[in-house]
Every structure is written in C-alpha cells, then in structure tokens.
Design brief:
Layout: E1 7-17, E2 39-42, E3 45-48, H1 52-70, E4 90-93, H2 101-109, E5 113-118, H3 131-136, H4 140-145, E6 146-147, E7 150-151, E8 154-156, E9 160-161, E10 169-177, E11 184-195, E12 200-208, H5 212-226, E13 243-246, E14 249-255, E15 265-267, H6 269-273, E16 285-287, E17 293-297, E18 300-306, H7 307-326, E19 334-338
Antiparallel strand pairs: 1-12, 1-13, 1-14, 2-3, 4-19, 5-19, 6-7, 8-12, 9-12, 10-11, 14-18, 15-16, 17-18
Length: about 350
C-alpha cells in the first residue's frame, strides 16, 4: 500500500485553550510545583507545546468510543494480549475486541500459534501475512492510526505556539480531600503549573493513501474539537484540558494524472486502485456541491477546500464514515491451536 503515493490530505489544526491545560512533563521540580507542563527548546527559548503523540492518543481514544457506539465490538483493544485457553490449548477470537490487532499478527509472525481452523480468513503460513492481509484484517482504528504490525495512515505533528500567540503559564494550588470529613486532608497539598486559557497552538495533520471514510474520521474529530467536546492532558475530570480547535482549509493532493475525476470529487484509495485490493471499495469517493480551488504544482494536482466546499466535505465524508462502520463485516470465530516452543527447538504439539 505504501509503495505508491496515490493521494494525500493536509491541513493545519489551530488549537485554542478555552481553559487551563496540563500535559505533564513527568519531571517533578526540586522546589516549587509538583506537576509542570511539558516544554521544548524552540528558537532558542524554552516554551510549552502539545506533543503530537498526546494529541494522537486522545484523538484515537475518542474515535474508538464513537466507533463502538456505531457498532459494538468492531474496534480492538490495543492493550489486550493473546492468551491460550488452558483447558484445550486453543485461542478463540470471536471478534476484534477480544485481542489487539497488533498482538494478533505479531503472534502469527513469530509462529507461536499455528492455525488449525480459520472460518473468517485463512493464513496457514507465516509468509501469507502480507501488508494487504494485515490491513484487511485490522480494525477500523488500526487501519487509520496503525498498530505494532502496521503503520498508520495519519501523522500528527507537535503543536507549537501559533504566530503572535504569547506563552502564558499560571500556578494553581491543589489539595487532597479527606474521605471521612470531606474537607482538605492534612499534608495533602500540591501545586501545579498549567497553560493558561487564551493560548493558541498549531499542529499539522497529514493523511496519506486514505479511504474517504478515514478522511471522515478526521473531519469528525475536527467537528468535535470545534464544539469543545474533546479535552486533552491531565485533570480532565477536574476542569482542566478544555480546548477548541478550528481549520480554515483542507488540501487534497493527487500524484500524476487521475483520469475521469472532476474537480468537485474526492477519490479515496479504493477508487484510485480500482481493483478492490486491501478490502477497499471501488466506489470510494464523495462529491461536493461547491467545487474547490484546483491547481497544479509540479507533479501534484492540488484541490483546496475552504468555506462552503470545506463544510460540504466535512458533512459528506462523515456520512461516509458512519455508513462504513455500520456496514462493517464482523469476523466469525477464529480458532488457533496453541503450541508451546521448547528451548531445544521442539514443540508440545
């Protein structure tokens, strides 16, 4: 899939702190606050920022909840590991939620499990786990954000202070609550530094070789950020982490000539491949009523969506995402014969 570069999507996300925000550095100070925001050196100065890894984690967690709401047990739990059934030495995986996608494929690759019966899809040999097979059998979240066995489609940069925005940090007092009296517990006071409200950060979002429903996921995240529905950082249940975000335009790029595509159409990976490989849909496209601005830069054909065309792109791609998840094909029961490898190279099978 990544041996070619068929389409790209780029936009800049402006994140505005609507309240105090704290992404902890993990380094307590010798004297002063117990919790401080993460910082980096930029342009010769130490300044606060929002790590791209933190943003990606929050976005993935949020969209996993949305996917489970649309169709339960479609998305995997990335922290669940494979374990054999001790009674009959078989591992049974009736759906995605039973095991993480990354660990599932890692176990197969290491040949710790040998397939005895696969009713959903059959990969009896290690070499059959191609990139196409892994992508095809990954859950919707792993297809976009990646797993330990497959790199994701989306990259999120660190969010640095926007041009003209001033770094504002304030110190706050915290105190532990006595569970008996409901008042302040003796000796349980702590201090923390937070990024103040009214600070703007900018992060670049890059999506490559995407299906339209995956673009819809990002547009849904942007919409929820615009509504202030996603909090980031620590202390979110205590009033911290309130943010709002906006985008002014989205550019979708195609490399080389794309025959048959009109300017008001966005083609996803399935439409560009046209053969249904990787489990993609050959009708992978959306149409916007308001045509975007189109230009050619070298080898790239760039379409830029803003204002009404951007609004239409959001709506149509989100609808495509919802439709895709609701019609997502659930796997049937998969059974693996567990084989314990001995140090002498033999097995118990």
């Amino acid at each position: 899939m990544l041996k070619q570069l068929l389409n790209e999507c780029r936009f800049t996300l402006t994140i505005h702190t609507a309240g105090p925000v704290l992404i902890k550095s993990g380094h307590p100070t010798v004297s002063g606050p117990d919790m401080t925001p993460v910082r980096t050196y930029r342009n010769g100065n130490a300044e606060v920022y929002l790590p791209g890894s933190s943003l990606k984690g929050v976005f993935r967690s949020h969209i996993e909840k949305v996917i489970r709401t649309l169709k339960d047990e479609v998305v995997c739990n990335p922290f669940v590991k494979t374990n054999p059934n001790s009674e009959n030495d078989q591992l049974v995986c009736p759906n995605y939620a039973d095991v993480s996608c990354g660990d599932k494929f890692e176990v197969r690759r290491k040949e710790q499990l040998e397939v005895s019966q696969v009713q959903w899809r059959r990969y009896p040999k290690k070499e059959d786990l191609s990139n196409e097979a892994v992508y095809l059998d990954s859950c919707p979240a792993c297809r976009l954000f990646g797993s330990t066995s497959f790199i994701g489609r989306v990259a999120i940069s660190d969010a640095y202070l926007a041009e003209g925005s001033q770094q504002k940090v304030e110190q706050r007092d915290g105190v532990g609550i006595d569970r008996l009296t409901g008042g302040a517990a003796s000796g349980a006071k702590f201090d923390l530094k937070v990024v103040s409200s009214g600070v703007d950060f900018e992060a670049d979002i890059y999506l490559r070789n995407f299906e339209v429903w995956q673009l819809g996921i990002l547009m849904l995240i942007v919409s929820d950020l615009e509504e202030g529905l996603i909090r980031i950082g620590s202390g979110r249940s205590r009033g911290l982490g309130s943010v709002k975000a906006t985008i002014s335009e989205v550019s979708v790029n195609y490399l080389g000539a794309v025959n048959g595509r009109s300017d008001n159409e966005v083609w996803g990976l399935g439409k560009l491949l046209g053969d249904g490989s990787y489990g993609t849909d050959t009708d992978d496209e959306v149409t916007v009523e308001q045509a975007p601005i189109t230009e050619t830069r070298g080898f790239r054909k760039i379409t830029t969506f803003s204002e009404e065309s951007l609004k239409c792109l959001k709506q149509n791609s989100i609808e495509r995402f919802v439709s895709k998840i609701q019609s997502w094909e659930m796997p049937e029961t998969m059974q693996f014969e567990y084989m314990e490898f001995r140090r002498d190279g033999g097995t118990n099978g």
